[in-house]
Amino acid sequence: MKKILLALFLALFTCSVSFVFAEENYHVGIPKGFYDDIDPNSLDEDDDKNQLSKSQEANYKEENSVEHELDDEGVMIPETKANPTKNYTEIYNSLEMPNFSYLHDIDPDQYYDMKDTAWSVYPLLRLNSPIYFKSITVDPGYYLLTPRENKGKWYMLFKQNGVVKYIIPVYDRDYTPEGFYAKHIPKPKLTPSQKFHTGFLSAIGHVKSSKRKDPIKSYLEVNDLENYFVSIVIYYGSHKYSTLFRTIRL
Q1: I need a surface site. Which of 49, 135, 154, 243 has the fewest CB within 10 A?
Q2: Over residues 109-133, mean pLDDT
Q3: Which 8-state DSSP code applies to residue 237?
């Protein structure tokens, strides 16, 4: 009976409190008019701007992201940039035929290049089939290749038995990379007695003359290119010289 009376009392009290709040225009929780100064359209515009900025940020990250390749151990492999392909047809057509020759086809500077050595310092080319530079046909054979300058332009001399057989223009002259000869030219393997003999002779030579110097280093490369072109490159001292030929005549 007490529980029933208590329940009726709480019900009457709740109804009376609700009536008072309704009469006095009281608001429980959020005050009346709290949202009156907020424009719903502006909220939509802010949402659009936020979505746009997030989309732009995602696009920027996608455009500027770099995918790195990993090796088997998970170590990042450095990215290598591919060199642009040269237009060898345009280079070949731009080269001019040589308009000079040597007296009796003898290279006058050869003596100064070889006076301190017992062997030729020029790289030796063994050609098994003919190659062509415009109207010049370089026949098969053995040639000593020598770079020479004439009136500000560089040329490659093809020599046999000390005689200049062909003169070919150089299309590119550049510096030899540092450490190139140490990497590509193997050192001769000497026995202990040969090492002692060589060191002894070198010491005597340095004692007799302070002007003694090592012979100039040289190296030869032949590269097959696209469209029936072939490039012959010689490294001679501090520079490398590139020439361009065709394996079939145009």
Answers
A1: 135
A2: 90
A3: T
